[in-house]
Write the structure tokens for this entry.
Amino acid sequence: MPRDSASPVHSFTDPASARGRLLAKAAHLFREKGYERTTVRDLAAEVGIQSGSIFHHFRTKEDILKAVMTEAILVNTERMRERQSLAASTREEIAALVQCELESINGDTGEAMAVLVYEWRSLSDANRRSILELRDIYEGIWLDTLERARAEGLVQADPFILRRFLTGALSWTITWYRPDGDMTIRDLTAQVMAMLKLD
């Protein structure tokens, strides 16, 4: 059965560029092998360049890790903002956020999002703070929307707690959702909204 495709990603790095290809391959290797076990030589071989060429784009391997995480957050934050701007109600805004997060986890940025979750401790303190600032902006969009939903009487739960539950449930779909199955991301979004019962 044909799938509905996610909206075009407004990447801050051209995916077809040398840097874009490197970030995509790095996300894959960091997800598959782990950051610590992935070498610069591995990255270069995956992209098809000499090891030294990587340092034309990044100073260190950690800079690559940070860039993978940064790109994932920025792309998905922009996607959420665009979808929200098209929504006609707070309920539609929440549906847009749910769908965007499902797409980010199960779609084109899925590997980078997994790296963001599992390789967090590999960042230096300074880089971790930088990523946290971006994450806070992303989470702020969610919390502001859920606060508005509570003010409108759409939800009764504490927005912070509700967001934590949604984070866990949506993230866990990576373990069971099959993009090549019969259920589209839009279908899955509808199921989430049905469970939330936003009336």
Q: What stands out?
A: The helical segments are 18-33, 40-47, 61-85, 90-106, 110-118, 125-151, 159-172, 185-196. The two ends are 32 Å apart (CA to CA).
